[in-house]
Amino acid sequence: MKERLQQLEKEALEKVKQVTSLKDLQDVRVSYLGKKGPITEVLRGMGKLSKEERPVIGELANKVRQTITDAIDERKAVIEEEEMERQMEEETIDVTLPGRPVRVGGPHLLTSIVEEIEDLFIGMGFEVREGPEVETDYYNFEALNLPKGHPARDMQDSFYITEELLMRTHTSPVQARTMNQYQGSKSVKMICPGKVYRRDTDDATHSHQFTQIEGLYVDKNVRLSDLKGVLNRFAKQLFGEDREIRLRPSFFPFTEPSVEMDISCKMCHGDGCSVCKQSGWIEILGAGLVHPRVLKMAGYDPEVYSGFAFGMGPERIAMLKYGVDDIRHFYTNDIRFLKQYHQA
Amino acid sequence: MFVSLNWLKQYIDIDHIDPEDLAEQISKTGIEVDGIEHFASATNNVVVGYVESCEQHPNADKLNLCQVNVGDETLQIICGAPNVAQGQKVAVAKPGAVLPGNFKIKKAKLRGVESNGMICSLQELGVDEKYVPKAFSEGIFVFPDEVEVGDDVNQLLNLDDVIFEFDLTPNRSDALSMLGVAYEVAAILDVDVHLPQTNVSTTAEKAEDKVSVRVDAPQQNPYYGAFLVKDISIGPSPLWMRNYLMAAGIRPINNVVDITNYVLLEYGQPLHAFDYDQFGSDQVVVRLANEGETMVTLDEQERSLAPHHLVITNGDKPHALAGVMGGADAEVTDQTKTVLIEAAYFDPKTVRQASSDFDLKSESSARFEKGVDPNRVRQAGERACQLLEQYAGATVLDGVAEFDQLDKQEKTVTIWTSTINDRLGTNMTNQEVADILRKLHFHFHQEGETFNVFVPTRRQDIHIFEDMLEEVARIYGYDEIPFTLPQGGSQAGGLTRRQQLKRYIKRFLEGAGLMETVTYSLTNEERINHFISPEIQSEVVSAVPLKMPMSEDHSTLRLSLVPEMLQVISYNLARKQGQLAYYEMGSVFLSHEGEVTKQPAEKERVTGVFTGEWVSHPWQQEKKLVDFFVVKGIVDALFYSLNISVTYKQTKMDGMHPGRTAQLFVNHRPIGFIGQVHPKQEKAYDLNETYVFDLDLDYLLDIHHNAPSFNQIPRNPSVTRDIALVVDQSVHAGDLEHTILTAGGELINDVHVFDVYQGEHLEEGKKSIAFSIHYQDPNRTLTDEEVESSYQAIMDAVKEKHQAVLRG
After folding, report:
1. Residues B261 and B357 in one domain
2. Nearest CB to A155; choose among B170, B490, B516
3. In the beta sheet, which residues pair with residue B725?
4. Fewest beta carbons less than 10 Å away: which of B41, B163, B189, B378?
5. How many CB pairs under 8 A join A and B?
6. Is the ipTM, as predicted for this complex, more than 0.85?
7. Distance of CA B6 to the CA centre of its chain
8. Which residues of A touch B582 (CB under 8 A)?
9. Quick check: A237 contacting B, CB < 8 Å?
10. Are residues B144 and B169 in the same domain?
11. For residue A155, what are the contacts with CB-CB under 8 A and spacing of at least 6?
């Protein structure tokens, strides 16, 4: 009997080793350890044994059963692991196939530029103001020291709706309206972005509709050097720390002195190249100290208050910053153009 | 304004300055130099030659064989110009010369005969065709006799000149003259200005004896001076003068015309020359035109005059439209013997009006319009007389017949060093300020830091302290002004809630896959009538048209963003870009009046347009075209994220598909629409199936958005009941949902459609809509009885209101 048990153990262990599937393993379990299996049979036949033999054989039978059980369990874990691996193998995908597209939209390049500039001036304590696009002659011209018949009105030929109403030619009327609202009661520190309109035939550098951002700071003791400081910070943040600015005299009816601001050319750093027409400098915006007549008309005493104002064209800035070669791109909204500016 | 440096050198010493450096300094100090042109670039191998003989080429009819003496040798040159002749002094490019355009002159054989150089036309020497005097435009240039054989042609023709192109701002009319430019450059370089001579040897005869001047409109014409010059011989003007005129962009004509043009450029004072013998009287009467009066101007156009036009008459008929153009009758011709030179000050507005009425812009009108220097009017007349005496063999009559009520006083402006420093942020000393004024050639009285500045009348742009501040600042140098940051209190900048929300909505829509467009506000008058949102349509009385549009496509302000955005879709489709979803924020403009007199209402909208595939993932066979519900899903999500509840109602409106359009309501207020573009419109715009939404952005921004408050996360389970209702096709899911919510009571926390079915097993004209109803009480577990009673109430209500039956 002892030999029989040892033989069974040897046999069973051998079978377990050969089994490769969980089903076969279960068959082995049933065939050796089941109620009708040989070990149970051995145990059942123990009655025939002597008193001395019984515990010895019983112990041995239990040991054999345990050994076989352990071997089966161990083998089961291995097979399960193998099966899992096989399944993973089957489930393997081609990770280089394209993903399911998510629609990606984005802002218009002009919006990106305008918001960037807004944020930059907000950081310097400016607020953002908006105003009507159809303006009165008064706010668009007269309040800005451009009385009727003023030769400088030629500079910005306008779309009139009636004698007294027109499409605004700049966003400065928003400044005039704001100052007029406060009537000299407090300082003003604002920028006003928005659409403006002029009688220009659309071509690579002209558009009958375009965007402007104008800024105004009116307070006690505002100096031209403050304008230089603020514009310098603006230019360096927008175009890069390595860029320099310079002011040149110019003329706008609503500022005196009036200046134009250039930044040093990115391509040649001031040495002169084709981008900057050999000058080393690129014109960016117009600015100046607010004309005393403009202050006075809005209820600000020019003896007490002074201020600076500036105005720029986001299209031009975008064209310089990104090398856009035709202003019409901003308004045709070709998807292939718009998509180029969506990455952060 | 073109400025010849060689001409400028007549007034100031700038020989030692590099033209590029000078241009840079001028730009930085006051006047933008837009271009620098090195006039022409012929080499120095071009000299004056004397044509000793000129015979026909033995082998060619149209060629001439010339022997040309160039000083050190005589060259045989073949010349094809029709005007070449023996005895002329001409420009000869010797072999080795390089003409503009890198044209190298070599010895050559033409039709078997040797040619050792070329006789040049002005064009070949680099002079622009349009400045070449008519006499030489078809052939070679012929020098006047006084030039020496062998002389350098570059110098004689001023081809070594450098021309600056000034981009003048409207205030700097003082720089519309060479003298003005001289003062400007003198201030920059701190040098003196040499003024031209105007002395003439006069006769005993006085101008006043021959002509009288009467001005009936002194306001429009405060000064009129008439100079008389007799015994004129009309001919070409001196070479140097022609050169300078060409450099300035004016074509030389004859000595009288050239001299008036030369003085115009030199002094900035337009002059007019009349043929005295053709004037028709011995009196000049300046008056406003009569109603219905006409005159024929130099360009042979008959002009109908109005009473605001100022005319120069002979007491009877007009001979000139003051400051704008002369008349044909008293024009200077080759026969002219006696000339009346007009030097006048015409009111800028009067000239501006006339020049704009007749669309006549000239060098003269441009200067009068900006106001000429009152102290140079008579001087300019005197200068012209002096030049006529010298270069037209004329005799100048003594004095001038004039009318003079012109204010020639210099204005005084007071400036203070401390105020200058306060405004500029500088630390200038009194001495520095005084120095700047001296460089500008401005006279002043100084007491300590106070300067009383006498502004020269050439500077018509300086009136107040700030004008002088600019003068001081620019001569001091903007580069010298420091960089500072404002000292004022530190305001907190920032966006308003409205501006923040606008940005939020933009980012939301971009996240949902839409690209932003920016389109034109001005659109086609015919296009504006469609796609007008119902709440705009009910408010608008008229659209807002431009008075004088530039094109039909941009003639009227938009009432909807949709038409221009459909154009964008169409544009992209035409370029094979078919998967498009765009949004835009912008204003529409509506007038509440039949005829616009007041500012129109500007209403901000947010609008979207969609076409093509919405989902496209080919290798997994996934593909979905945009439809109504894709767009509605985005709009719903937008409202959800703004915490606004919106309802939809089927609607019909112009431009939209009558069965696939909904109007949106918030709190019963109409706030826009969503739907498919009408197939007719799709065809008109060349579109495929296209969907749009258009919302009242102002309302979305201004509505009170409740700040979210904390709601307890439910601990108790919810109960779900599903019901499928069979109703008529015409019953709307939204109405059923509304009934369920109303009848079902407060325990319902969500109802949504999960299935819509029609077809087999259902009666014709019926459909089944299945709803999932979720019940929840945050504080307790619901009982079956409660849910059952709500369910019964719902069933009763839908049966009564919609004749719905439970689907079996």
Report:
1. yes
2. B170
3. B769, B806
4. B41
5. 249
6. yes
7. 32
8. 333
9. no
10. no
11. B170
